[in-house]
Structures are given as structure tokens and as C-alpha cells.
Amino acid sequence: MPTTTDSRLVLKENEPRRHPSTAKMVQLGRRTNVQALLLFFVTVILAVLFTLSSTSSLWTSTQFPSAPLKQTPDFFSKQQILSRCATLHHIPTPPPTFHAREESDRFEQGTNATLIRNALIFTGRDNGTEVIKGDLLLDKGIVKGIGKISRRVIDNTPNLTVVDANGAWVTPGLVDLHTHLGVLSAPILAGAIDLNSAKGPILPWLRSIDGLNTHDDSYELAMAGGVTSAQVLPGSTNAIGGQAFVIKLRKTKDRAPSSMVIEPPAGLHITSKNGKNFEAAPHWRHMKQACGENLRPYGNRMDHMWSLRSAYTEAMKIKLSQDEYCAKAESGLWDSLVGPFPEDPKWEMLVDVLRGKVKISTHCYEAVDLDATIRLSNEFQFSIASFHHASEAWLVPDVLKRMWGGIPSVAIFATNHRFKREAYRGSEFAGRVLADAGIPVIMKTDHPVINSRYLIHEAQKAHYFGLSPNTSLASVTSTPAAAAGLSHRIGLLAEGTDADVVLWDSHPLRLGATPIKVWIDGILQIPVPSKTGENGHVEVGKGKDGDEWRQVPSTPNWDKERKEAIEWDGLPPLEGRKSQGVVVFTNVKSVWARNDNGELGQRYPEGSQSTSGKLASVVVTEGEIVCIGVCSENLVNEATYIDLEGGSISPGLMSYGSPLGLEEIASEPSTTDGSTYDAFKQHIPPILDDVGGVVRAVDALQFGTRDALMAYRAGVSLATSALARPIYLAGPDAHIISGLSTTFRTGSSHAMQEGAIVQDVASLHIVMGKPYFASKGVSVSTQIAALRRLLYGWVSEEKETGLWFKRAAEGVIPLVIEVDSLDIMASLLILKTEVEYNIGSKMKMVFSGAAESHLLAKEISDADVGVILNPSRPFPMVWDQRRILPGPPLTNDTTLITLLDYDIAVGLGVRTAAEAQNTRFDFQWAALEANGRISREKAYALVTTNLEKLLGVRSVGGQSGDLVVYHGGDIFDFSSKVVGVVSPSISGSESAKSFHEDMIKITDRLPTEEEYRRVRHLLLQHTQEAVSDEELARVLSLCPHLETVTLSGIEETTDRTVVVLAENAINLLGINLSNCTHVTDVGILELTAKSLPLQWIQLNGVVGITDPSISAIAKSCSRLIELELCDLPLLTPVAVRDVWSFSRKLRTLRLANNTLLNDRAFPSPILSDSLSLRKDEKPLPHRPVTWLEQLPPLILRHTAENLRVLDLSYCKITDEAIEGIVMHAPRIQTFILSGCSLLTDKALESISKLHGHLDVLMLAHVSNITDRAVVKLARSCTNLRCVDVAFCRNLTDLSVFELAALPSLRRLSLVRVHKLTDIGIFAIAEQATAVERLHLSYCDSISLDAIHLLLRKLERLQHLTATGVPAFRRAGIQRFSEQIPSTNYDSDQQAAFCVFNGENIGRLRRFLDKEDKRRREAEERNVPFKMRSDDKLDLY
């Protein structure tokens, strides 16, 4: 769009511009004489005002309407005009004595001098090749000495602080030439966004300093990365966005933006610390131009270039007018001057551009825009200092050399490309290609696109891809300083330059290099001085003490790839050459691989070999490693040999968090999935028939995208991608319900290629956070309220939304939540607890993003929630992320370390698809920041196994995982590069084997390899050796014919083992997981989902399972005949009701010790009297009820006639439940009700209806029953074989009379039946002659004579307990008892212990017979009887 101008300001050709005020005077002069008199006074006043204001260089056309009036020279100061004209041709250059200055204009009084001793100093001079070993003296804000500094100078420097560098590297402070620091402040808030103006395409009069926010959190973070100076640019939506300024990042004493500017240009009216007026200084000015896509609001490329040409034409007119004006003045033609000095504040910046006084930074990507801009520069004869972004500059270096005034610098990203069409041909080799062409290369961040703190990382990556070390370091120091016209004071270290210095913990180009100290203007900025006075020491560089850390890192050779990139015009083929034969890799330094459970491990070298340095050969056949070391010649016949030269082979990495594989170019809708429907903002179309509009990322996969293939070539063989984008990145397009992620192979060609899609559904994703800073959004409270309803099952399972949120609530799939805020994460943890408690589940919740998770680490750990740090290095982009833990050199800990210290499962992610190729750098950097607290294995797991577990990705272990081949080092070495990927032969099938082999049963050990296919029954209850869950899962995956499995002896068994068993043992009939406390609903639900022919399941003590698992068992296992569910604290009546409703073939049901079970868990009696009150009964007072009690009665239309064994021990049931059970299960044979303390005689009356079916009845601790009910029971259930009425305090001998009369009675327990006397014992002795086990402990009213009679009558008795019976304390009796337990028994208990078994019962009987005989003999002789205990035991 062309810029419009006021027609009154347009000058005719050769017409001088006149002062606006003269127009009014001429008009007044044409009127009356009176007016002429007034004119005289007005003229005088205006002349005085003009003289007073002539020191200012700006007169705007808007102040005075234009109408020229000729004036005489008497009204002007000739000297001022000549002085002003003389400055027009001054090009900003530092004075010759600049480096001889004694003090910096930025010096802060009270700053100590600093001497850095024993350093390796990169000066930045000689194109970055000069390195000096020696000292560096900083004083009064400048460098006073470098290299060898005389002792006299040091001694004469007062207040000197000495820092010993110990041979570490020192560089100039880094210079970031492209940032938006302060104008797009962190955290971004709507009130501080001063990046772009919407007032038009041409805005040279705007100044970024007018929007510079001094409270931007980014300043300190950037300094922590060694950045000391930065150019603050306006945005790029305008062809000319305004004036830019180069600032120092430290906060000054007056805390004003003006004091941060380096060499303020004329017109800012800034005075230096020493009182010097910067107006007179010839300083460079800076301006931002742009072209290309970003200017679309103002038209297309043709419009943009016309608006620039129109603006420069207007500026050229003013420039010519100024030149004409000054030519007349300098020639002494004062009478011919008309008006004041011609200028316009709107165009004065462009006039200075035409005069060569402005360093222009031009945002341009493509060749078409670069060419057009260079033509513009030649048309108007002005120079451009630097092109920024310039993704295609490396393809047209000769075009750049045609720039008017000299070759521009090019400021680029190292690897951040392809995010829009303009950047599609960007290359990681661009830096090297440009440098080879003689074009100055600058690395920049475009902060906050990349955090300015990581400017040095851009240089590191540029070096990795071929840029020389000196050029790489110069690209962030001296080269950007020169492009800004400030290389005389920043970006270099020499005597007289600014004292901006960085002391590094390693060579700056080594990955993870961190500043130990940073000085700006000689003032220490890093470490940050404590504001509280406390010792805030931050440890930096631990583990980097070796000499190798101070050496320039070696890098791979990329000549072949670079040449191909140029030949293919920036788009070289990325698909590699495939080989299916035998490949032999020689000179291999190390081999990492996954075991069958997917865990990482180093296969070579092992043990003592790990330090030998011996290189091996690795043979790969059909995608699998078949030999490491010295291999048979038969394996290597006709093989392809590849020399890795000290390289390695290791598992491929996984990328998560970006739209990798879901788009080709992010900003081009036609290359993406498009927009999905947001249930929170619009109605979902009826055709979807789903309230939440849940979509699957697998349906949107695009294979062969350049970002995916670039990641694949960088060792990232797997990616899990979702349509979830955080609010701060997606803005209004962020969806709270973001659908289901998918896992795929990045190197596959299409979705139908075998193995391309590893898992079609991995996790369910939602996005939560505060609204986007530039618009209103859905409130956090609304987001959580919706999530609560969805997890509680508000939506039917028949819909996609209901189905997947139910599975997430039950823990079947992970629920991955994009969230950064501490407060929101806390709310989600509370919600998780609520959901798990209410529905009895164990959710798999994962926080992604999680910038503030370190503040909640303990709670996250307690809740068993995983975390994916995304991005891996935090930045407070928005309010939700403001409380980051930045790590060294600002803090000792990082978020990653804090989370790992609490044993939280952590993974690392990336935000953009282009970043996926840098995954190997991300996890290495994370480990280096940890100062040695993370091992290589743990670091590797962050982007492999940890991510897989957190995202629910299965089937990546064993031989199914990809292996990446590195040349020249391992994955941790900067010198290595990927040269191949070993993929398994997925299409291979297992040869057919006989299914009629002899089957075996294995007990208390794992089967051997030969037994894998033969084992049918595996019983692991008392294993001699410890068995890990990993090993167990591996073995079970290889045993396809298992029918019964007992794992109760392997307490470490987890869901993984259960899932593996479910997937492989297709004929499984029974499983016992009792006491496997690590098993959860996930494993049980997988069992039920596989339609296995299960007939018995034992889950006693598996405390993590809940109602959904049990309900699923009842509904899906139609053949089930035995179900044991004892000791499950989370089991409620809801699931047990499903068991009664669906498991009709059940013969055994054990529910002991489930304290939440009440009457509502069991069938309700029909027409029960308990449902109504009798007339003489009064209603009970109101009391609070729980949701369990509010369940409606369970009315069954069928009976459970197959049920034979029912164990309800210690359940909170009443007589009503017993009545309903007996009514619906009339053939119960074993009824266990021990501890059901609420039961009364009425329950026994109901049980009596079982009649002859009942043979075992356990009523221990049912203390409310009386003789009346027991009598009725004994007379009705005449086939009772076992009765336990222990602790039934109301029973007397009457109950014993009836029980003793049972003809089939074999076991009777009367423990603590205190009312039992010898009469009852006599009844047992006379009638219950078939009893085999009798328990009489603590029946303190019985005598030894009664017991003697009992022993003589009960010839089948095999077990007798009489602990605590006073009569048994007689001397000589206890020696026949079993051995007293050695633990948990005090002396009184040991004295009372009396338990007799087997032969000891016969011995006791014979002893008592002998003692009875001795007593009678004593009575006959009328002598006192004395009990004996000293006779030999073998006599009996």
C-alpha cells in the first residue's frame, strides 16, 4: 500500500521550501494597513520564537500550515545553519581516541575493578581467530589490559577483585542482533505488547525504546546465557516497523530504558552519566524493515515494495531539499534561503538512511524478497546492514553481493526452519555456505521465538553442521557487533572496549556450555547478587574438569550433504538407501539395545571391557543384530561393510509435543489437518454425534514430511503426535479436548506400510490454562468443571467422548494434560483424588509442559502423576509459566532434577516439528545441566522408555525397536552423526510349530528356554530366587500355551506382566494374582478385553484394583466359576452387584475383609418383612447416609443355584442381606460369616433354610446369636461338618448339646465361649465321636477331668487347642503341646499355650490315664496325691 502524504507538503520541482509561518504573513499583508501594523509585531514575535527554538532540529509540517514566505538572513543564525549542514555528511564513526578513553560513559560509580587471571581469551578479532592466554583487567567499565598485564598496572588499580579462571574460556559478551526483548515481555501480558503497530505499512517514526519494558524477566535469563547486548527490533508486520535500539541488558541505577541504550543517537535527548549530551555524538541509528509473508495485512509483495519505494521517494525529496538549502548557505546565498531548514519528523529517519547513517535490519526470507530489496537499495543508493531470517540467502549469495554499499551480514537460525513457506528451503548448512561465499554470518534468536539465553546454542548447532569454530563464535560476538556499527566497543575484547565479559565452564561451543560469571560494563551480573544477603552459591560446571571440555568440540563431516542441498535448491531427497541383506559395521565403540521388556541397556562393551577401548564388529541381518565382536565367517559372506570409525549403535529416540507428522508447513492451512471443532466454543456437527468432538490424530497423519524425515535422519525413529497445542501457542485455536494421540515411525512412507503406525491410539489429551493473553477464553474453572463431569461418566460410553474419558478415568489409557500453572496442577491432583475415590480407579495422569511442576513435586509424586517437560528448557512465556526454575547459573537445581529427586517419571518434549531433529541435544543438555546428577542411562530414558511409559506406548521393546547407527562417536558425542537406522523385519513370521507337544507343570521357578512352548501350568508361590517383573514379563511373552498361572509369590508383578500374559496366553483358564500389590485396573481390564476363556480368578490383596475391573470381569468372563476378591479396600457394592447380576455360573465367591460392602451389595429378599415397620415399632431417628446406602435394592430375576462357597467375613452386612442371599443361592455348602458382627438370630433362621446343603458354617465373632437360633440351625442343617462359633459370648451348653448331636460333625470351634462347662464337654464326648478338630481355647470353666473323658471318647481327634484353659496349667501337661511360637508371645502367653496335634494327643491321653491311676492308688492308700512331671516323655 503506498503511503499517502499531505498535498500541501509536496514541493514543485526546484521550488524551495518556505517556512510555514510566512504564508500567514503574506495573506495579512494583502489586507488593510492596520493589519500591516499588526503584522510587524507578529513578525518580530515569530522571529524571536524561531531563534529560541532553532537549536532543535525538528520542525514539523503539522505545526505550521505550508505557505512559503521569503525571509531575510537577519532572522537566522548563519553559524547554526552551517553547523547543521556540516553534520549532514558525517558518517558515524568512533573518535580516534575512543580506545584511549579512561572511563566508559556507562560506568557506575562504586564499581570495583576486576582482574581475571589465567584465562583462554577469545577476543573476537581477526575474524574470531585470535585467542590469547593470559589475564584480563576490567576497570571503570572498560577493558584496561589483556594478555600479559604489568604488575605496576595491577598494583595501581584500587579496589581490585581477582578471579582465577583456571584456564577456562573467556569471551566478549554475546550480542543478539535480533530480539524483541522488552517490547514482547516475559511473561507476555496484554498491557505490554508493543511489538507491531497497526497504523500502516510505513512507520519509520516509531521507536522501539518507547515500548521498552524494563521489567521483562528475559533480561536476567539472557544474561544467564552470556548475552550482554541485544538489538530490540519492532515487529515485522510493517514494511518499515520503526527505529530499533541496541541495549545493554543490565539494570542501571536509574532503571530507565534510556540508560540501557548503547550510544543513543541524536534526537533521543539522552544525557550520559558524566553530563555529556549525546546530541552532538555521531552515533549509528538502527531501523527495522520487512518484506514477505508477514506484511499480508497491507497487501501482497508488489504492494509492499511500492510502499517502500513511495516512502523513500518522499525521503529523497526532503534530502534533495536539504542539500539545496545547504548548498546555498555554504555558498553565502543567504538572500535566496526560504524558510527554516527543510525536514519532516515522519521522514527524517529515512533521510538519514539515504545519507548512510542508519544500520538497517531487514526481515526477508526468500530469494524473491532478497532480490527486490537489493534492487531497492540500488535504486535509492542506501545500504542494508543485515538480512534477518534469510532462509534462502544461502542459495543466492551472489545476489547479496550486489547490495549498494557493500555485502550485508545475514542473521539466521541454525536449524529452526520450515515453519512457514518462506522458511521451507532453510538449511542447517546455510551458515557454512554463506561463510564460504564471503558473507558475514550471524546467529540470532528472534527472542522470544528462541529464548535469547540460548543464543550460544545456535552457534553450537551452526558449528555442528560445518561452520568453523572461529566463525561460529564470531557469529554471536564480533560479527553482530560490526553489523550494528558497535564493534569498537562490544563484541570484541581489546583495550578500550566495553567491559562486557563472559567466563565459561567449558569451551563455548561445547553443548551445555554455561557462564560461570558475566560482567556488563565491568559490573558482575552473573551470579546474580543476593538481595537478602544470604549465600546463594550456584554450582556451575561440575564434571567438566577435564581438558577435553576446554577443547573445541570435533564435528562430523557434512560436505556430501551440503553439496546435495545446494544441488537440489534447498530440498535434497531425505529418504535413505535401504539394504535388506547382511551389513557388517566395523570399528564400533559401543552398542546399546533394548531387552524384551523395552528397557535400555548397554550390550557392548560390558563389565571389565567398558574401559578397554576395544572396537568391535557388529553383524546385522534382516534388521536384527546377530553378532557383536568376532563373528563367524558364515555370517558375513556377501555382506556390505561400513566403517563407523569409533561410532556406535543405539536405540532410536522418540519425539513428543509437536505436530510432527500432522503438518508439512505450519502456517499453510492446505498442508495441515485443518481446523477441528471445539466443544467449548461451538456446536459439534450432528454428523459426529459426539458432544466433545473427540478426534484421532492417526486419521490426520502425513508421512514423508520434511520435518519427520529430518528427525529420522537425526536418530528420532518414533514420534507420538497429538492435535493438542498449548493455549499460549495456539491462542484462540487451542482446543481443551484435543483428542487422541498416535505413535508412528518417522521414516515410514505411508500409513499402510507394515509397522508405520506403532499404536493408533496412545493417550487422551486435553489442554488447560488461563486464557490467551490477546483475547478472552474459557475460564479455568469451566475447564476443570467440564473435566470433572467427563471423568465421572457424564457422557455415555456409546459416544467417543464418553468412551475415552471413561477409559482415562479407569486408568486404561493415560490422560495427558497440557498445563503449566502450579495452581491448575494442584486442582487437577485434587480432582484425580476425587475421581479415584468415587469410582474406585487408578488414573494414569500426565502433566505436559509443567513449567511450574517443581513447586509441586512432592504432591505430584504422591499422586503418581508423570511429567513431560515441554519444552525441556523452561521460559516464562506467559503468566502460567512465570515461576520457572531456570537452572545453572541462576539456580542449582533444574525442574528435571527436582522431579527426579521425588522419583517422578519424567520425559522431555519439543514444541515445534523442526525441533524434533535436536532431540539428542535436548536430553544431553538436560544431563549436563544436572551437574553430574543424571546418569547416561537416565538421560537416555528421558526421550525413549520414559516417554513410552508416560504416553502409554507399547510394543517397542525387544527386537521390534529401531536401532540408530552413529559414525564417529556415540549418541552423546558432538562428533557423531547418524548414518543409518536398523529396523526390524516386521514382515517376518514365526515358523509353524507343533501344538501337540507334551505339556508340563512348573512350580516355584521360571521355565527354561526349552520349556517355553511346553509349559501349561506355572505356579510361582515360593520361589527360591528373586524374580523381577521385567524378567517375568519377558518369559511370559514366550509361553503361548499357558492355561493356569499363579503369581502370588512374585509381589513385584505389575500391569506390564499381566498385559503381556493377556496378549500371549490365549488359552488362559485361571490366574492367581493374590498379593501382587502393583497390579491395577489397567492389567485387569486388559485381561477382560482379550476375551480369554477364564474360569477362575484370584485377586486377594491386590489393593489397587477398583470397581471397574471387577465389573468388567463379571460382564466379560462368562465362563467364570471361581472368583476371590478378599482384602480389596476399594471394592464397593457397585461391582459386587454386577457379579451377582452377570456371573451366573459362579460356584465360589470370596469377599472377605472388604469393609465397604453392605447389604446393598447383595440380592434383596422378596416381600421381606424388614421392608416395612410393624405397627408397634417406632421409626428410627434420622441419620446421615452414604451414597453406598442410597443404592436401590438389588432385585434379581434369576437365582444363583450354582453358588456353593460364599465367604463374607468381616463385611458390614445385616440379617436382611443373609435372607436375600439364602433366597437366591439356596444351595450354598460353605458359608463363612466370621466377623459379621451385625448378624443376629434372624440371620441364622434364614441360614437354616439351606437345610441339608450346608456343611460348613463359620460364625466366629458373630456375638449376637443365642442358643435359640443355634438349636434351630442344628436341627435344620443336619449335614453340617464344620461349625465355628468362637467368641459367641451368649452361647451356653445348650448350643453345644445340639451341635454335638450332628452326625457329620468333624470340626467344632468353641473358642472363648465362656459359658461352656464340663456338661457341654461331656455331651461332645458322648455324641460327637467323629470330631477330628476341636478348639476350646479360653474356655476357662472346663476341668481337666472333662478333657480326659473327651480324649478317651474321641478316638479320631487329631487337633485340640486349649490355650488359656486354667486346668491345662497342671504340671507335666504342657510338654505334650506343640512348640511355643518364638515371636509375638509374651511370657504369660507362652505359659498358657496349649496346642496338641496327632501323636501328642495320644500321649496326653496316656499321661492323663496314668495320672488318674496314680491318683486312685493314692486314694486307696489314703496318702496325698502328688502330680508328676519328671517322668520321661518316651513312656507315653
Automatic annotation (TrEMBL):
Taxon lineage: Eukaryota, Fungi, Dikarya, Basidiomycota, Agaricomycotina
Gene Ontology biological process terms, A to Z: SCF-dependent proteasomal ubiquitin-dependent protein catabolic process
Keywords noted in UniProt: Membrane, Transmembrane, Transmembrane helix
Keyword field contains Ion transport: no
Classification via InterPro entries: Amidohydro-rel, FBXL15_LRR, Leu-rich_rpt_Cys-con_subtyp, LRR_dom_sf, Metal-dep_hydrolase_composite, Metal_Hydrolase
Region spans: Disordered: 534-558
Domain of life: Eukaryota
Residue intervals of the F-box/LRR-repeat protein 15-like leucin rich repeat domain: 1199-1353
GO molecular function: hydrolase activity, acting on carbon-nitrogen (but not peptide) bonds
Every Amidohydrolase-related domain range: 431-518
Compositionally biased spans, kind Basic and acidic residues: 534-550
Bilayer-crossing regions: 37-59
Gene3D superfamilies per record: Metal-dependent hydrolases, Ribonuclease Inhibitor
A GO CC term attached to the entry: SCF ubiquitin ligase complex
Protein name (database record): Amidohydrolase-related domain-containing protein
